[in-house]
């Protein structure tokens, strides 16, 4: 597997080390040459000096040959821009990190479904521990080729939820309306701006992404 990281953050470096130990190929794009020089002493991977949101820099990694691109700079805005540029260049999968939860809805509307929000994830993790909940319950249930997918409802999707043209093994499980959780059933009426969450399979995930990328039906 070939993986590219934009930004040599502590998270990127730690993940890169694990991937290298597992025998995968790693490329790190970093703007700070001094950081690259320091990391070259401990990481046996390819480094690219430059701005990872620039098409010319991303093209140096041969996008169509890359399995995963991680956008992990310290800037949410830079990560969002880089992920959009990367998607236009043909990267198979783009995973983006944002620190500000307010950007989450924007990422969903842009079709950036692989979004990591460390502060929110950690907060929920700690809250679950404090409440005495089993924090491994979800990971134990969602396994194998099962995946979650979400999209924002456009005008073309408004109406009865049962009229959504979904693949055979995909089901809507709940939605957020004005950031408020709502369970769904066959009688649920979708409204523009609703964030819909589905359970699907790895194979059908790509079909859903192709249909609702950028938050609009294609």
UniProtKB/TrEMBL annotation:
Under the heading Pfam families, the entry gives: TrkA_C, TrkA_N
Domain RCK N-terminal: start-end pairs: 1-117
Keywords, A to Z? Ion transport, NAD, Potassium, Potassium transport, Transport
The reply on keyword Ligase is no
The protein's matches in InterPro entries, at most eight in alphabetical order, are given as:
K_uptake_TrkA, NAD(P)-bd_dom_sf, RCK_C, RCK_C_sf, RCK_N, Trk_Ktr_HKT_K-transport
What GO molecular function terms would the record report? potassium ion transmembrane transporter activity
A GO-annotated cellular component: plasma membrane
Annotated signal sequence range: none
Put simply, this protein is called Trk system potassium uptake protein TrkA
